[in-house]
Design goal:
By secondary structure, this protein is α+β, with helices and mostly antiparallel strands. Helix content is 40%, strand content 22%. The chain is elongated.
Length: 351
């Protein structure tokens, strides 16, 4: 069944049977909707319910307060008072979820389509995390599963890939579950250590990286011309390297959400993406304020040392490339920020 998914609040009765068919089987879950953006499917098991809520890592204080209230609600045994969604379906279509264990899920942004993160627990076994897409948006999940299978064990900080499956209208893969919360912002040695481990043992000229050429063509001429000749380290690029996409375990930091990954990237791009996204989404900064905030952060020794190791001689050019990348990935206009950087490059004595 193909569908256009609009919001959890409006479409819950439509999409829940699809979740049961594909993933939940005959399990009964308690469903919590908050507005049209956040949805939890919570099992009776309080421990697993709490881990499901831990999947949600909001950065803004209002959203963190909501998450805290949900955790308190679970602790007080309130899950049983939520609206339950029973089913006559006995088995799910995803094979590894037909094990008799408990399942809970976190609903994703409706803008991403019908996509969910499921946690499944069987007594005596580690928790599994399963990403599922149903309907018109399965391609990103298929691609992410293939990426994880390819790079698992090849690089540090990659979740252990467990397996993948596809159906007539869905795709899914599972990895090990990492319960430890990651950093609240990108500024520490652990983040730099992980990024360093993704650097490749060779250097590349930015202007010769094929997939970066369209980004350079859209930038102010002086920035693009200078970037053409910048020589920096090649790198595995995560693509959405942000504090909310990092978890921690005994081995260190582990990154999740690899659908934008590529091995033919350049060092420093992930850090730039993460710092820019934090400034935009957490602090609400744009223009000169955003640029100044990022430059303040890279004044710390670990971040500045990492950029030097990557080979970046001019941080203005590094940030220009990162801004253009963020603009392309997120569909944002970064013209004002690039204009400010252009002025810094043209008039360095006025900074």
């Amino acid at each position: 069944m193909m569908m256009e998914f609009k919001s959890w609040e409006k479409d819950l009765d439509l999409v829940f049977p699809q979740l049961q068919r594909v993933a939940l089987g005959g399990r009964t879950l308690n469903v919590l909707t908050i507005g049209d953006r956040i949805a939890f499917g919570l099992p009776k098991n309080r421990g697993l319910s709490n881990e499901v809520v831990n999947l949600y890592r909001p950065m803004k204080w209002k959203a963190r307060k909501v998450a805290g209230l949900v955790k308190w609600f679970i602790k007080m045994g309130g899950v049983g008072f939520l609206k339950s969604k029973p089913s006559k379906i006995v088995r799910s279509e995803i094979s590894w979820l037909n094990n008799g264990g408990e399942i809970g899920f976190l609903g994703c942004n409706p803008g991403h389509g019908l996509r969910c993160i499921f946690l499944s627990s069987v007594e005596g076994q580690p928790i599994k995390v399963t990403k599922v897409a149903i309907g018109n948006n399965v391609d990103p999940v298929v691609a992410e599963g293939k990426w994880l299978q390819k790079i698992c064990g090849k690089y540090p900080g990659v979740p252990k890939f467990g397996g993948s499956e596809t159906g007539s209208d869905w795709a899914a893969f599972w990895t090990n579950y990492i319960s430890g919360s990651g950093p609240k912002e990108l500024r520490g040695e652990l983040e730099c250590e992980l990024l360093r481990s993704w650097l490749r043992p060779y250097r590349v000229k930015v202007g010769e990286v094929l997939w970066l050429k369209p980004l350079l063509e859209e930038m102010p001429t002086i920035l693009a011309s200078k970037l053409q000749d910048e020589v920096v380290s090649g790198a595995l690029v995560h693509g959405d390297f942000t504090s909310w996409n990092l978890r921690s375990d005994e081995s260190g930091l582990v990154a999740i959400d690899w659908e934008w990954a590529r091995e033919d990237g350049v060092g420093g791009l992930d850090m730039g993406h993460g710092l820019i996204m934090e400034a935009m989404l957490v602090k609400g900064l744009r223009g000169r304020g955003l640029v100044n905030d990022v430059f303040t952060k890279i004044g710390s020794k670990c971040l500045s040392d990492y950029l030097k190791e990557c080979g970046w001689r001019d941080v203005n050019l590094w940030m220009a490339l990162a801004l253009q990348y963020v603009g392309r990935q997120m569909g944002l206009d970064v013209g004002s920020e690039l204009g400010f950087l252009k002025n810094r490059v043209e008039h360095p004595t006025q900074i």
